[in-house]
Sequence to fold (173 residues):
Amino acid sequence: MQKILVVVDMQNDFIDGALGTKEAVEIVPKVKEKIENFDGKIIFTRDTHFENYLETQEGRNLPVKHCIKNTEGWQICSSLQPFCKEVIDKPTFGSQKLGEILKESDEKEKIEKIMLVGLCTDICVISNAMVIKAFLPETPIAVDAACCAGVSPESHKIAIETMKVCQIEIENE
Fold:
């Protein structure tokens, strides 16, 4: 049985860049500690956009250029880069590729539990938790709330409550 930690979008633009928040800055050491103490496979996701971002549906709804491929803001924050062995670039909130990889991995060796941490709780963390739930409905999925931050503290709390209703275990509320 294997355990998997999914580190969602711990990128400069979400921490202290274009869409950064003080809450995001505060979770970086907690996420690093979680990774250092995790006994299992670690997968990072990386929000990935291109120069035409403002012309996309997301860009029209959130007109703040961020995570443009190969920019400093797109990079995983420097304190976590040493742990980035597997990174999935994703152009959308939830990654279908992540779901496929986890399903394949589960077929080879049963996954005991999948834990998610990262940014933003209310957009990409919840989206990826739901994608994983769709691909692996019988696999326990958890989110460490202390290692996540949302667009605002209020939307973080709402996302946590929503995930609970969707049978995602919440740790460290």
